[in-house]
Design goal:
133 residues, mainly alpha, 37% helix, cytoskeleton, cell projection
Length: 133
């Protein structure tokens, strides 16, 4: 290795080992305030001694709630469905006289029709100037 690079790496390692201390035991530090105050944060504007009782009660209630109690609507993705009744309690009838489900929306229908009409036509590749200069 190049002696100049080696000297640089050694000096850098010595500086880092002097200034940085590796923490192997992690502890929650709740009493330490952040370095910069956040003027938009409600919790940062109140001192720890003057916290209203209603805030404490609200936090206790929210931590006990289950996801079904917190959210009004069913989860947007499948991996969030744990504990929810996602299937209807009353099964839907497949009888076409009673079930009027919309098969496809108008936009999709028009788009599929337009693609069907353009099927087989040659696609023009862009050959112009990509950016205005």
């Amino acid at each position: 290795m190049d002696p100049i690079k080696l000297r640089f790496y050694i000096e850098r390692y010595e500086k880092e080992s002097r200034t940085l201390k590796l923490q192997e035991k992690y502890v929650l530090t709740t009493q330490i305030k952040s370095l910069t105050g956040k003027f938009y944060a409600r919790h940062d504007a109140i001192s720890l001694l003057d916290i209203p009782e209603e805030y404490i009660n609200f936090i206790e209630k929210r931590t006990v709630l289950k996801p079904k109690d917190i959210y009004k609507f069913r989860p947007p993705s499948v991996n969030m469905e744990y504990g929810w009744f996602t299937k209807p309690l009353i099964p839907r009838s497949v009888d076409p006289r009673l079930y009027f489900a919309k098969k496809e929306c108008d936009f999709i229908k028009k788009e599929l029709y337009q693609r069907h009409l353009q099927k087989g036509l040659p696609v023009e590749r862009f050959t112009g100037v990509p950016f205005k200069t």
